[in-house]
From TrEMBL, chain A:
Gene3D superfamilies registered for this protein in UniProt: 1.10.8.1310, Ypt/Rab-GAP domain of gyp1p, domain 3
Biological processes annotated in GO: endoplasmic reticulum to Golgi vesicle-mediated transport
Pfam family, one: RabGAP-TBC
InterPro entries listed in its UniProt record: Rab-GAP-TBC_dom (IPR000195), Rab-GAP_TBC_sf (IPR035969), TBC20/Gyp8-like (IPR045913)
Keywords in alphabetical order: GTPase activation, Membrane, Transmembrane, Transmembrane helix
Record-level GO cellular component terms: endoplasmic reticulum membrane
Transmembrane segments: 398-418
Rab-GAP TBC domain segment(s): 94-311
Single Gene Ontology MF annotation: GTPase activator activity
UniProt protein name: Rab-GAP TBC domain-containing protein
Automatic annotation (TrEMBL), chain B:
GO cellular component: Golgi apparatus; phagocytic vesicle membrane
Organism: Caenorhabditis remanei (Caenorhabditis vulgaris)
Phosphoprotein recorded as keyword: yes
Pfam families (UniProt xref): Ras (PF00071)
Transmembrane segments: none
Keywords recorded for this protein, A-Z: Cytoplasmic vesicle, Golgi apparatus, GTP-binding, Lipoprotein, Membrane, Methylation, Nucleotide-binding, Phosphoprotein, Prenylation
Cross-referenced SMART domains: ARF (SM00177), RAB (SM00175), RAN (SM00176), RAS (SM00173), RHO (SM00174)
SUPFAM superfamilies the UniProt entry points to: P-loop containing nucleoside triphosphate hydrolases
Location(s), subcellular: Cytoplasmic vesicle, Phagosome membrane; Endomembrane system; Golgi apparatus, trans-Golgi network membrane
Family, per entry: Belongs to the small GTPase superfamily. Rab family.
Protein name per UniProt: Ras-related protein Rab-43
């Protein structure tokens, strides 16, 4: 098959913001504006059988999605939600931003709900803010959200904060976006976020939600971004984060990371628990769907493909898979909380995204949320309750320092003291 | 990552203050000497460290840079507990960030150790034309909260409370290093005293007696500005 035989995409979409840095663009000319899988782009520079195979697989997938979208162009794509989810989760994801712009709105309108009725936090007291079940019916529909004037939006309690945060998103834009274009996007982003927050007057904006909206805006454009983000805020994992305190939502979800690790990587779990690492290193992962910590745009949109097509708890499984992937670094790191915290906070720029996604999906099948939050959580609590006997006894480094200093001073003091009594 | 394992002292510092005052920029300037305009938001807490030379000794600072948004406040409070020093930050061009300081001070007194040392810094002092908090105003706040001398514990001259106020600019590299150096110097000297007083017992405990004055050497480092 030659490249020219691949049909051009005729869907009415705006141009993509993916980085067309890979040599693919030159090879393929105008046909494909993007090469969304960074794996492919990098490996194709040095041809080899594996790179070719990867390239072919991705090309086939690209064609398959293209054929699929053309075939069902006139239909409601929601009817094919299962196929779309398969595309999004399987290797390579949705491949191109053109496809993403068409498919994300459908995925967001049909988000996977929690597979069990109660979410992580409903088993606890929910006096602070009510859970998503009592979501008010009078929440404005998208037309009403769009109709809100700029002045009305500026009167929203969060406008100023959102504006400040959006001005700080410089590093989140792919390098191929010009300064002028970025200014336009930033100007669009503020009202977009505030419109989404207007969906429910009880929504509490958190820093990081703007990262979500920015990613969607980059892919879907201003018009489609609003329904996508509103759906995510209303029905997705972010609903909890926007309605409840972070302790009662995301922090409790992150606690499940230890439950998962204790079953798949007990050694890692023990190391992390023994230094009282906590979960703060991964706070931004579920809150921003990794868009805050990943450095490459392609990796971010690839994760968004999967999260839009999966259970709201998948980011926690992905977090666990990321920690497992970094096993060697964790075990060779100094056994101290700050070092491990820093190690895990800094995401390596090269991550085998597809492998991590596969692992995460496997983990979610192996220990589905309903088991994880109940039986497995209880079992984990029992493990933690047992007195911990570290295999290697470690002494905190500052304790040694202080003992040394104190000991030296003590010896000196006694030396001088005895010298006073018995002058030599 | 700095792997210089050698140090004589290790202190944990936590930066707090409203979002957007520039805590991360201050830490970044101190750590690497760079200034990043429009730094991204801090979600949760970031960690970094740097070793300084104080009186010929290596003082390693572990710096925890907390996200300033209200919603992260309760999450980051657990980091105050083991802090030796707290840097309270406000933006000299933002009245609100100065007004919030009392809440941050209250939080610190609630969650940090009682003998924690506090330093007040005003950020963005390069933006003189936009200034809305006068230096004197901040100094008054510092004095009102400053220099609590513990009569018995840990030692009679232990300075807690807010020991100094500095106006800084991460952009123009004004006073950032000084701020951390002052904090490190004070901590080191206070701990020296604690160790000296209890040295003979062989364990590190903060002393409950002794007369060495901390004030005279201290004034020297205030002249950096």
């Amino acid at each position: 098959m030659t490249y020219s035989s691949i049909p051009a995409i005729n869907l009415p979409m705006h141009s993509s913001f993916s980085e067309p840095n890979s040599p693919l663009k030159e090879v393929l000319g105008e046909k494909w504006q993007t090469a969304s899988c960074s794996d492919l782009g990098d490996n194709y520079v040095k041809p080899g059988p594996l790179a070719k195979a990867k390239f072919n697989a991705l090309r086939n997938k690209r064609e398959a999605i293209d054929r699929f979208l053309k075939k069902h162009k006139k239909e409601d794509l929601s009817l094919y939600i299962d196929e779309l989810r398969d595309f999004a989760i399987s290797s390579g994801g949705l491949v191109d931003d053109e496809f993403r712009a068409a498919i994300w709105p459908v995925l967001a309108a049909n988000l996977v709900q929690n597979d069990d009725l109660d979410d992580v936090s409903s088993s606890y007291d929910s006096d602070f803010e009510s859970a998503q079940s009592d979501f008010d019916e009078e929440s404005p529909i998208f037309e009403e959200l769009t109709e809100l004037t700029l002045d009305e939006l500026k009167g929203h309690k969060e406008w100023n904060q959102v504006e400040l945060d959006v001005h700080r998103t410089l590093s989140r834009f792919p390098p191929n976006i010009s300064d002028t274009h970025r200014d336009v996007l930033q100007t669009e982003l503020i009202p977009l976020i505030v419109r989404v927050l207007s969906v429910n007057p009880r929504f509490n904006y958190y820093q990081g939600f703007h990262d979500i909206c920015l990613t969607v805006l980059l892919v879907c454009g201003e018009k489609d971004a609003l329904p996508v983000c509103s759906n995510l805020a209303k029905n997705g994992a972010f609903n909890n984060y926007l309605l409840k305190t972070l302790e009662k939502s995301v922090v409790r979800e992150l606690d499940l990371l230890y439950v998962i690790l204790s079953r798949v990587e007990p050694t890692l779990e023990k190391v992390m628990r023994s230094v009282e690492l906590g979960t703060m290193f991964g706070l931004s992962w579920p809150l921003t769907w990794f868009s805050h910590s990943l450095k490459q745009y392609q990796q971010i949109v690839r994760f968004f493909d999967v999260f839009l097509a999966s259970s709201p708890l998948l980011p926690i499984y992905v977090s666990s898979a990321v920690v497992v992937y970094r096993r060697a670094s964790i075990l060779s790191c100094e056994r101290e909380m700050p070092f491990l915290h820093r190690l895990l906070t800094e995401m390596p720029s090269e991550l085998p995204i597809d492998a991590i996604i596969k692992d995460a999906v496997y983990l979610s099948k192996l220990m589905p949320p309903c088991l994880l939050k109940t039986n497995y959580m209880n079992e984990y609590r029992k493990i933690v309750a047992k007195p911990h006997r570290p295999t290697v006894k470690t002494i905190p480094r500052y304790a040694l320092q202080f003992m040394f200093v104190a000991g030296t001073v003590g010896a000196a003091a006694s030396f001088f003291f005895f010298k006073q009594i018995h002058p030599l | 990552m700095d792997n210089d394992d050698g140090f004589d002292y290790l202190f944990k510092i936590v930066l707090v203050g409203d979002m957007g005052v520039g805590k991360t920029c201050v830490v970044q300037r101190f750590r690497s000497g760079n200034f990043v305009d429009r730094q991204g938001t801090t979600i949760g807490v970031d960690f970094t460290m740097k070793t300084l030379n104080v009186d010929g000794k290596r003082v390693k600072l572990q710096i925890w840079d907390t996200g300033g948004q209200e919603r992260f406040r309760t999450i980051t409070q657990s980091y105050y507990r083991s802090a030796n020093g707290i840097v309270l930050c406000y933006d000299i061009t933002c009245k609100q960030s100065f007004g919030s300081l009392q809440r941050w001070i209250d939080d610190v007194s609630k969650f940090a150790a009682p003998n924690v040392v506090k330093l007040l810094i005003g950020t963005k002092c390069d933006l003189e034309d936009q200034r809305s908090i006068e230096t004197e105003e901040a100094e008054m706040l510092q004095r009102a909260n400053g220099r609590i001398f513990f009569k018995r514990k840990p030692n009679p001259n232990w300075i807690s409370g807010m020991f100094a106020m500095l106006e800084t600019s991460a952009k123009n590299d004004i006073n950032v290093d000084n701020a951390f150096l002052e904090l490190a110097t004070l901590l080191k000297r206070q701990y020296d005293q604690g160790v000296l007083e209890q040295g003979a017992t062989g364990t590190f405990q903060l002393g409950s007696g002794g007369t060495t004055s901390i004030n005279s050497p201290w004034q020297r480092c205030c002249q950096y500005t």
